[in-house]
Amino acid sequence: MYDERVLSSATRAGVEPISFEHPRYEDILRCFTDEPRRSVILTGTAGDGKTNLARKVWCAIQSNSTESFEAPYQKVTFSSGNGKTRTIHVIKDLSEIAPQGTGRWDPAREEILQLFCRSIFEEDSTELFLIAANDGQLIESWRKLEETDVVLRTRELLETLLVEDRQEDTGAHLSLFNLSRGSSAEMFDLALAAFLAHEGWDVCKALGSSEYSFFGPSCPIRHNYELLQTALLQQRLRSLFELCDLNGVHVALRDILLLLSNAVLGHSGVRERLMTPKDVGQIIKDRTVAKASIYNNIFGGNLTESRRESLDLFDYLNRFRIGFETSNKIDDILIFGSADERLSPFFDEHLRADRFYGADESYFAAQREYIEGSDEEGAAASSFLEMLVSQRRGLFFKIPNSESEELAFWKLTVFNYAGEYLERVVKVIENGSKVERPILFRLVRGLNRVFTGMLVNSERELYLATSLSYSNAKVSRMLEEYISVPPRLGERVEIISGHDGIPRISVELAPGIECHLQLNLTRYEFLSRVAEGALPSSFSKECYEDLLAFKTQILTKLDERRTLQDPEEVSALNFKLLELDDYGNPSIKSVEVLDA
Amino acid sequence: MPDLTAVAPPPHAADHNTSMWVDEQIWGHRLWDSQSPWMIFLEFLNVAEARLRGGRLLDEGEGFVSLVYRPYRRMALRNLLFNNEAITRISEDHRDSNEAWTQWLSWMSDNVKGVTDLERDYSFLKNRFASFNEFAMLIGMLRGSAVESASNKRWTSKFVFPFGPSALYVDLNISAATGKAGREYINFGRTGELLYMMLWRSNQGEKLKPHLETLLKGDNAWNQLVKLLQPGTDDGDLDAPGRSCYLPYASHTCFDKLGEDWLNILELNLPGFDALPHLVTLSAFHIMLYKLTVASDWCNLRRPHMICEVVAPKKTIVRELSIGNHTENDMLSRRAINAYIDAIENSSEWRTAAAEHGAFQKCSEILEQRVLWGQDYDGPNDPQALINDFRELAQKRHSQHVANVHRIYGKGAGLVSKRGTNKLRYAPTDGLLKTLLYANVGKRMEFGEFLALMYERYGLIVGDLEVEKVLAKEEFDKKAFQANARRLEQRLGSLGLLKRLSDGCAYVENPHRRKVA
């Protein structure tokens, strides 16, 4: 159990563990203290802090007792005021009591779960539960229970809550808190604050006085710690977490803490690739401070490839491809910036001025070799290219917002439109405002191009086209219908907020007949790039498939609308064909066939 | 061995023009290896349409009745669509519509083939279109939508998309000698007829009927257009009834599963004709399963399974096992032929005859009666030599066509492939996975449950829990199959068909989930 390991490590080291109140803590406690009382399931993926949270709730519930939190199953009885005695059963980790593999439930333990199933469907039950389990175990354990009516009913309930991302359902006195559905960005804020505010840093600060000492003026650990306190780095890092949330990728709390410690301590040249105070003096003497770059550490750049690949966190962060994506302007600054007078202000500000991770002697040497050398495939070139990766990562965290127009730092990621998506879509919708028309129109243009398979430039109508035989054919020229984007006669296309915080594209065909598409970061980027006419072939097929499925949904809704409206009198056969002029403007050619 | 009381006896020798009756008795007349999945489906539609026209759709009465039907020929339409290369040129050359019509009508009357004199005149079309240009464009679009339009079949074997009854017709060939069109059995080799019989004998016939009626009514603009491209009424255009096909089993779990899967797809109410490709895939897939299942029944083996590799970048143990498994299954039907002939040789009837005076004569009679073979035999007058010769010929004949069905239909359905290697193995395509998921998942299903269902229902093996059921522990590597399942999970995820909750839990989802009644 990780929670216990943290506690015992902290005791051994003689420091307080990093600790902060979980955002769901109060909500969970209220389930047991406020009427109507309800049971709680805490679920999520490994490292979300389920056990830690359960322990804190357990301590709060039985504040007058000193019962430890060791046993896998415990219960406590208390009087709840109105003369009722209630029991709270706590299972701190379902996997500890549930059968593993092909095993079967122990009858006594099975009875506890059966009791749980009965209690959540009872009015004002005296039996309350707090169960922590990861979602896979939850489903798996329930499948092995004897299939009584309440077990089946509970299983169905749990599946619905899990798959549909809901906390409650009518008819059951149960709240399911899925910690994997919480905001990673929010957890990042809390973890970062607790990490930076830890009392241990004060001890470190008192130690560093001389040039070569730990936490001295040249100590990379200290520098990383200080960089981590700067608003710009915090903001950029937070954006990455926010974008993970908006792409449906959840970063566990344990991984956030791992990131913070790796960011500060990472160094590719020391044992375990993490610095200890003892390493610092040598690193400074050897002039390998650059290998401790926080910008590189954030992406696990200090770790071996296999170690990095084994950690979900770095898989998620490296999907942004920061360090490998770039723009001409940025690479010009990095390669020619020191000598070019237009570019040198940027070079001086972001590279020359950074005496820790900026352009040092080895950088200039490698740069010269790269520009003047004849050996393009050689070791010198490849070492310079490696430095570029590190510097691009640095720039992503250094370019201030005031230079964002000029240097377009989101081009350093694979998601060129990510900044716009955060600022001008997600935030705007959160504030209850409407997304500006040009953005909506661009997305519609992207949809039109996917839906028709042609380079349509139209953006005020959404074109629903099929081929003769197959509605999802690559090229679809038969126009079924077009839907007005600005509101008109019950039709409209707009961007709305989703319950999970991720925006939706909503296509309304008539009042009450509408389809939604989750507009996550990847789809936003995909549609924007399609609309602008360029799509790298590496871009996921998943998006394309999702959009075709969306088209099918709209076509099905269109049928629904047709059956609701009075069928028109059809006297002649009429085929509507979509034709494009040289500028991509669609026109509709109508071909009539007479039964003569 | 199958329950022989529920098997139809062989027909009279004169009913079918075959050199022997072995494959036919085991699987039916006939599994035709060179019929593509779409052709099977089109042939099926022709049968179904003809039976609907006669008021007997999936309603063939009790017992083993013959299936006799009269499909359409539609030579006028086929000339218009596929024997009409001048239309584009004429349309481009002539601005003036009238002139173009005149040119084209004259070209057509010189070039049409296999039609009646009445059908030779296409001038009725002129009044139906506003301009020759529009007419040519629509013909071009119809031609572009043709089934397997990329193939280079001769024009009389090209098929317009089955929009409805007006777009259905059988495979024909124009005789060089007489210039007349006659029935051809290369593309329509009766497997579509068998498909019809299977669906009729499945336990889903009644439920399928209304869906098929909708499909065959052709209540859509394209069917109307195709109808308006043809002269007059349909009555004179029917082909003569052919000889009946033959399906040995009165009922079979394979038929039921086929019917259930078809029904599930049809109940999704997909827009337009989007259900059709799924039905096509399912038909080829189930007929292949039927072939394997019947073969293993005859060999008294347990139900066949298929170890599927979810294509990996590198060679894996799963691939190795899948290759071996494919080879083994490929041999199954040859073993079934042997088992079938063994059963004759071991029957008391044969043994008694072989021991009696005039053994050769009597044994010849048995073969003639049971497998419609023996007249051309010219070997030694010895029962053993006779049956040995027969066995050899039966295997040879089997290997020419029916033996290939597993491989060819497997490929057609998207199950069998050489992708990434030089040997055949089971490696399902995205298309097949999608179809199977649509046919089996209501709203959602836990991923592990889905893997278990694929095994229970079809014998498809992807994950470690399933392979455990057919192989001994030392024969496979658990981790390799777990990785295989993970790859499937990723593939389904990339098709938008899977929702991952966390490291331990994922659900497959059917985006076109059935509407709750």
- Give the class of chain A from helix and strand content and strand pairing: alpha/beta
Which protein chains are joined by the largest interface, and how many residues does each one contribute?
A: A-B, 45 and 41 residues
* Rg of Cα set of chain A: 29 Å
Helix and strand composition category of chain B = mainly alpha
Provide the low-confidence segments of chain B as ranges: none
How many structural domains are formed by the residues of chain B? 3
Termini separation of chain A (Å)?
A: 81 Å
Question: Going across the major beta sheet of chain A, what is the strand order?
Answer: 2-3-4-1-5
Largest sheet of chain A: 5 strands, mixed
SS summary, helix count of chain A: 25
Strand content of chain A: 5-15%
Helical content band of chain A = 40-55%
SSE topology string of chain B: HHHHHHEEHHHHHEHHHHHEEHEHEHHEE
Range of strand content of chain B: 5-15%
Characterization of the model:
The complex is a heterodimer of chains A (596) and B (517). Chain A is flat and about 100 Å long. Chain A has 596 residues and is an alpha/beta fold. In chain A, the strands form four sheets. A five-stranded mixed sheet of chain A has the order 2-3-4-1-5, with helices on both faces. Chain A has a three-stranded antiparallel sheet with strand order 8-9-10, with helices on one face. In chain A, 46% of the residues lie in helices and 13% in strands. In chain A, a hairpin with a 5-residue loop joins strand 11 and strand 12. The N and C termini of chain A lie far apart (81 Å). In chain B, the strands form four sheets. Chain B has a three-stranded antiparallel sheet with strand order 6-9-8. In chain B, strands 1-2 form a two-stranded antiparallel ribbon. In chain B, a hairpin with a 2-residue loop joins strand 8 and strand 9. At the A-B interface, helix 6, helix 7, helix 25, strand 11 and strand 12 of A face helix 6, helix 9 and strand 8 of B.
